[in-house]
Specification:
Order of helices and strands: HEEHHHHHHHH
Low-confidence stretches: 1-46, 73-82
Number of helices: 9
Strand content: under 5%
Strand order of the largest sheet: 1-2
Largest sheet: 2 strands, antiparallel
Shape: globular
Distance between the termini: 68 Å
CATH class of one domain: Mainly Alpha
Structural class: mainly alpha
Length: 222
């Protein structure tokens, strides 16, 4: 039981619901609620951001403050509300991405570059448009590939890689078209007979393929 301290007498009338044990408890409750709300709101734009630097080193930094993660903030990446976070080490996620790529006979360097761009290797990522998990699966794509939990890294990577493979087959291994379709949809690529003139999509394709070519070059030098 909480022993409330005796308050000194005062000649002023007490405001209802403010002074006294009940009033102080209410104030403390409101303060905790306000703090929790502020923390939750700020956390929506927080979280890990993972990328590979120019020397091929994996860098883990803060999504909210690092300018190199602006492409993730612009997509509205944040944690899904009301759900326990999935915790994996980045090395584990890279290994899972590699395995999913090998299983579908897709170049793992392309898959790793795409995951890096889509979510920064955050399996809990959720965009403002509703794209989920490591490979930012839209709900219709997740349903198409039988995904039960899109935040499960294995299910997400399996579906994302299978979808990427479908695009690579459709566009006859044209990387620009396949990557653009992953971002903007097949309809947009078909309509423009190539990368659509959307600034976000053009930047997306350029970034993914730049990282892919870096990985290819790094592998050739080893």
């Amino acid at each position: 039981m909480i022993a409330w301290p005796k308050l000194p007498p005062t000649s002023r009338p007490r405001a209802a619901g403010v002074a006294g044990p009940t009033g102080w408890l209410r104030i403390a409750s409101l303060a905790c609620t306000a703090t929790l709300f502020a923390t939750t709101a700020s956390a929506q734009n927080a979280g890990p951001c993972v990328y590979t630097d120019d020397r091929g080193r994996i860098v883990i930094t803060d999504l909210a403050s690092d300018p190199r993660c602006a492409h993730l903030r612009s997509r509205g990446s944040f944690r899904p509300p009301g759900r326990m976070r999935v915790n994996f080490r980045v090395a584990e996620l890279i290994s899972l991405a590699h395995a999913a790529a090998v299983a579908q006979h897709v170049d793992h360097r392309l898959v790793e570059s795409l995951v890096e761009m889509e979510s920064g290797y955050d399996p809990n990522a959720l965009s403002a448009q509703g794209a989920m998990g490591l490979m930012q699966l839209m709900p219709e794509v997740a349903r198409q590939y039988g995904v039960i939990d899109p935040y499960d890294p294995r299910q997400n990577l399996d579906a994302g890689v299978r979808h990427l493979k479908k695009l690579l087959v459709k566009y006859r291994a044209n990387l620009e078209k396949a990557v653009a379709a992953y971002n903007a949809g097949e309809g947009a690529v078909d309509r423009y007979s190539g990368v659509p003139p959307y600034p976000e999509t053009r930047s997306y394709v350029r970034r993914v393929l730049y990282r892919y070519r870096q990985r290819v070059q790094d592998g050739a030098l080893r």
